[in-house]
Amino acid sequence: MRAVAAAATQPLLILRTLLPTPFSKPASSSLSTHQNPLPPQPSLSPQQLTQINLLIPRLCQRPDHLPHVARLLDSILLLPNPPPLTSLSLPILIHSLTSSSDISLSMSLLTRLGRNPRAGPHLLPIAHLLLASYLRARKPRDAMSIFRWMSRPENSQWGKVNGSTYGMAVTGFCRNGRTLEALKVLRGMVSAGVAPEEDVRGWVYRSLLREARVKEAVELDGALGRVREGGKGGDRDAAVELMDQMVRDWRE
To answer: Which long-range contacts (CB under 8 A, 24 or more apart) does 108-115 make?
Structure first.
């Protein structure tokens, strides 16, 4: 336990030596301004990246060490040229967060990264991973909390929820037997001008049939079909209005 706690500080100490870089003034140079600039160098060496990737799984073994990983990820994304997310042991962190009974750890990570001036482009991809992991873990309530966070107007500065995330969320809620939540996400999807794919429509249709809502299933499938075929704005508005009515009339 002491070894893990002590190891937690080592990458952070490494990163502290790198963090001043984005705030420091560039060194003067006698090179001509017309000379082609050198390509940006990665802020972490391969050795440091390996060290961090070996550390993350060790820290994730204990829930009380997950905040250390969140701070570590926050520090990495603050660097001027951070490594791509795919080069980090991020899936292990995501699995550990969504395996916890406390969703506040995941929300704390998103909040922390939201305050990081350099982490913006990575926020929605990380939230997407959390959303998918919660759905796989059959935790639809926590998944809905993540989706609501992604849909907040103040988070639109980091980008918009894309069709892939919408589709994954709708089908994931259907697989979890949460048709009402699927309808709410689908409504947001259509409102955003994203037409659902055929497989997404199929999941919603079958889920409504399981709920013995045959009439609604047929009406909604037809409305979504018209949206998919490139219908006018009126077709989209009609589909949204239909889903609004279905949500209002829903009885669990």
So the answer is: 108/67, 108/70, 109/70, 109/73, 110/146, 110/149, 112/70, 112/71, 112/74, 113/73, 113/74, 113/77, 114/155, 114/158
* Distance separating alpha carbons of residues 212 and 210, to the nearest angstrom: 5
**How many percent of the chain have pLDDT more than 70?**
81
Q: How far is it, in rounded angstroms, from Cα 66 to Cα 69?
A: 5
pTM above 0.85, yes or no: no
Q: Which of 71, 31, 32 is nearest to 52 (CA)?
A: 71
**pLDDT, tens digit, for every residue of 218-251?**
999 999 999 988 766 689 999 999 999 999 999 6
For helices 179-191 and 198-210, angle between their N-to-C axes, nearest 10 degrees: 150
Contact 194, 215 (CB under 8 A): no
**CA 232/CA 203 separation, integer angstroms:** 24
The residue among 196, 114, 116 whose CA lies nearest residue 162 is 196
The phi and psi torsions of 11 (rounded to 5 degrees) equal: -65, -35
